[in-house]
Every structure is written in C-alpha cells, then in structure tokens.
Amino acid sequence: MPKDSELLLLSANRFFAEGVHLDHKQRRVIDHQLVWTPPATTGLAEGEHQPPAPASTSFDLTGALTRLLESSGWQGLPVVLVLPANELIFRKLYFPFSDARKISKALPFELESELVEDFAQLEYTHHLQPEGEGTQVLAALVPQVLLESAGEVFFEHDLHLRSIDHAAVALHLMRPLTEGESGFLGYVGPEEAFVVVIREGKLTNIVHFAHGMGKLLQTHGDTLSTLPQFLGGLANHGNEASAALDAAGLSGADEFQQELAWLAAQFTRTFRLQGLVAESEIRFHGVFSPFLKWDGLAVRLRKLPLPEADDFLQSVPDSPGAPSEPSDEAEDALDLLFEEEFDEAPDAPGKSPETLAELKQQAKTRDQETPDEADDFPSDAETLPMLAEAGLPPESGTPSLKALEGRKAWGITGDLHTLASLLQDAHPLRLFTQTLPWRRFLKRHRWGLAMTALLLVAVVSIFGYRLHNAKTLLQQEIAQSEQQVRAQLKQVLGSPSATTIPGQLQELRTFIEKRHQQIEVSQSFLQRDYRMLDFLKRFSGLLEQEPGSGVYRIDRLEYGEARFSISGLINSYDRLQLLKTRLKALPEFTDKRVVESNRKSPNGIVFRISIDL
Questions:
Q1: Which of 41, 59, 452, 503 is most buried when burial is the number of CB atoms within 10 A of its CB?
Q2: Calpha distance 220→218 (Å, rounded)
Q3: Are residues 500 and 569 part of one domain?
C-alpha cells in the first residue's frame, strides 16, 4: 500500500510522457518511467527546422498518459501533473485600478477580446500584482478538454489527481532566482524551450519557443540510449579520437547543434526585448542547458566537444541496464544546495556563501559535521554525494554537464522532482486543484450553517418519529395477516408437515400442481375419439349367438383403412347369410361391395367375408 509520503510527478507532451515516483519525505526517487509517443509522418526533409505541431492540432494527452500508466502500473498514489508551456496560453494584462472585484469581473471580457481561441472552451486562473497606481494581471489558460481528459485517465487508473501546473510557473516556484533579484530563467529540454521573465522576484512574463529536437528524438523512440549516454555522445561530438558518439546511439548531431544555435539566438533576442540589464541574473535548466552559455552579451552555443565531455563519459555505464553511479545524486545534491542557499531561516548559522569556493567549503564542512545522517534513511534510499562532486553550476548560471550525471528524466520532471512536494501547496496560477477551502467557507457562514443544521435535525426527528409509528402499525398488520394465512392454510391442508408459512405455502403449491395434472388427464380422456371401440362394441352385438344357434367362431378380424375382412367357422349357411346382412346394415359398410367365400368342413362351414372400403 502506498505511503502518505509517496507522490507521482508526471509530465506529458507531444513527444513523450514521463513520470517520477517519489518519496518526498526521504527525498528519494522510487521509480522512473518514460514512454515515447509514436512519431507521425511529416513531409519535412532532414536538416530543416522542425517545430512541433501547431496549437490547432489536438494534443493527445489521454493517449500519452494512458501509455505511461499502463507501462508503469502505478495505482493509489497522489499525482501532480505538469503541462508544457507551449500547450497552454499565458497573457499579461494591465488595469488602471486596483479593485480586485472589478478586475475579476472585467478580466473574462478582456481575455476573450485578446484571444483568437474560443474562450468558452478554456479554463483560466489569474494572479494580481500591484504595479504603480494600477494592477498587472497574469493569466494562465488551459483547454477544458485537457483538464477533463486528465481527470478521466487518472480516475480509470485509481490515481488521485492533486493538482495540474504550468511548467514555466512550476520552474519559477521550484527554481527561483536570488530573492528580490531580476533576471531570467531559461529552460531547454527536448519537449520545449521557454524563458521566465522575473522582476524583483516576481514572475512577469513567459515566452516559449517551438524547436525540433523533440521530433528528432521521437524518431528513435524506444531504441534511444539512456540520457547520460545520449548527452555524453552529443557533448563529445566532433572528437575524432572517441567513438562515444556511435556507442551512444546518437544520430543527427548536426541537426541538434542547429536547433541549439537557433534557440541561443531566440534566448538572446528575448532577453534584450524583456529589459536585459547588466545586473540581470540568468539561469538555465533542462538537459540541453550545459550546451548553452551566457557570456554577458549573448547566449551562445558552446563549442563541441565540451571540455568536460571526457570526464562525463567515464562515469556513464556502458549498458543501459548497468547501475549508474551516482543515480540522480548529483542533481539531488544540487537541488539541496539551491534550497539551502536561499533558505533564510533564523536558525541557519553563519553568513550565506556568495562564491563557488565558499559553497564547496560549506558543503565539505556540513558533510564532516554530520557523518551519521545517512543511517536515518532506509537501506534502499539513494544517499546524497558530497556537494563538491555534484557538478555545481558556474556563476554564469549554466549548469555543468557533470550536474547531469545519473539523471534519468529527459523532461521538466528532472528539474522539479526533488522539490515536487511543494507543488502540492496552493499558488495563484495553478491550473487545477482538488483541495477545497472548506474551513474558510465554514468560518464565513457559521451562523447560517448552524441554523441549517438545527432545521435539519428537527426535520429528521419528525421524519424519524413518523417512520417509527408507521413501522409499528405495519408490524401489527403483518402479525394479523400471518395469523389469518395460517388459519386458511390449515383448512386447506389439514395437518401440514411444515411449521413455517413459506413451507406450508410450498405444500399448497405442490398440492395444487398435482390436482391440476389430474384434471388435465381427465380432460384428455374426455376429448379422445373412441370410434374404434364403438365399432367393436356394435360388431360384438352382431356376433352374439342366439339360443340353439350352434357353433359360431371368429378366427381372424382385420379392419384397415382400405379393407375390412373377417374369417371363421359357422354352423350353417343361414347363419352366414344373416351375418352378411347384418354387416351390410352397419353405417361403416353401407353401399360397400361385400365379397363372400366359403367351404364346407367336418366341423362346419369355413367362411371369409371381405368388404372394400
């Protein structure tokens, strides 16, 4: 049975569906599943920029989640679903007033005028941010069909959907910049790429880009190598002295470089359009983030092969089934470092580190001071390595390739799973949640609810009193009816063998069935045709011997459909003629041809009479 601390973090897009089974209290990954979507045929040639399908094309969320859940067998777990930013709609509106009620009433009309899509088919959530004398409204919209299909899939697989989140919003919540700073969060994954614009610690805009790397990976599907092997092969591309590219099963590395170079230009353009300044903090996330760097002027594609590619490939197992060391530890350690780096709890000793050297030194000191903490975890938990070995991100905000050692998740779940439990907490831009504000409702309407409860108690009491009286009367009527039935059954059956009414009724039923069978037999005898018996009776009257008639014997009698014949012995011709005359007088033989033959014998006259019918 799943524990209360277990959680499923799922993401689905047009190229694959991915899930991570977490124990968020012990900060460990229990299971990871990835299912690629079968590729659709396209008419684009290789090497061309291949963006995902347009928004008008239906995103088969049901099929993606169904394939993932059927392959994993997860049941009875709470689920947090993260939807890609390119499948959702994000809008930023400004109102010259700050009245929240007026904004809530006007917002649907403003959104409907802003959107090309059918607003009636969308669900939206919004967040208000004061800006000068007015209010800036951030609105996230999602098609209703996605919410409904997700709920149906999880219901069919016995999973409890806790919440649905926007990928970009979730990344901002889980991977924030330094508190109060302005800057950009960039995400570069195989499914999508986007930029989260942050001003003074607040999310102000989301810009997403359509690239073709997901399409390139989708063509390989289940034959694709593991993520570390793929990244190591791509990072070592161009190294003639290494065959790691072929070992990783990677093809089309030049196309990946073209896509990443195109994304670097899009990131640079977006940063400048969204108010880039020298003090802006820039961080990149996603499996392709180590291939990009911010040099202070633009985002550029790092030259391949990467300097750390050889060291990274040495830690990658040769076969997909071999255990990786460490397994998600580097990423978990990095997540823990980020969480503790920005933790401003009053009990945190000392000054927070500001440089990479100070971060590493603090990690070594913490590891030396708490050597026995690993004993508190179960034997199957993944222990965290030293933070100095985790591949810490450089000051530019681009994580090192070493930070992805042992990572299994290709998509956004790999950047969120260490803090996934925080996604269960409510936030304004959540697309869907199952938690209801019942406490607030009870507090606001406590007097009305109290009066309603008293009224319900009175109504239920009256109803119960009437029901009790009706039940008592009904029991009395049943007892009287039972006595009458027993008396009547005793009159019919006499002394029944059964003592209960159902048994006596069964005896009565058996008696009635037997009597009915007897009546049917009697009626069948009455309805039978006794023509032959009647004929034999009349014929016997003809053969009765008169006193003194002498010998009169019948040897053979045949009565068929075509002929009647009789043969025997008679004492005189007169008696024979009399018998012949009497036969002609019978109704059956009237007007029929009668043939007579006889011969004399010592015992009398042997005769035979035939009548053709």
A1: 59
A2: 5
A3: no
Rounded to 10 deg, the angle between the 61-72 and 144-156 helix axes is 20
For the beta carbon of residue 375, count every other beta carbon within 10 angstroms.
Answer: 6
DSSP string, 143-176: EHHHHHHHHHHHHHTT-EEEEEEEHHHHHHHHS-
- Give yes or no for residue 483 having a pLDDT over 80: yes
Domain identity same for 430 and 458: no
The strands making up 28-36's β-sheet, listed across from edge to edge, are 28-36, 16-23, 6-12, 78-83, 160-166, 432-433
Q: What gap in Å lies between CA 266 and CA 260, rounded to an integer?
A: 10
- CATH code of residue 374: 3.30.420.380
Bridge partners (DSSP) listed for residue 545: none
Q: What is the pLDDT of residues 156-172, one digit of tens each?
A: 888 888 899 999 999 99
**183 SS3 class:** strand
| Low-confidence winner among 52-61, 194-203, 404-413, 473-482 (lowest mean pLDDT) | 52-61
Q: Does a structural domain hold residue 440?
A: no
Q: Name 264's Cβ contacts closer than 8 Å, sequence gap at least 6.
A: 292, 298, 299, 300, 301
547 in the same domain as 512? no
- The per-residue pLDDT for range 580-604, each reduced to its tens digit, is 888 888 888 888 888 889 998 888 8
Phi and psi of 502, rounded to 5°? Answer: -60, -40
Please, is 208 exposed, middle or buried when counting C-beta atoms within 10 Å of its C-beta (0-12, 13-18, 19+)?
Answer: buried
Flag the least confident range among 49-58, 234-243, 305-314, 416-425: 49-58
- Cα 428 to Cα 435: distance, rounded to the nearest angstrom: 13
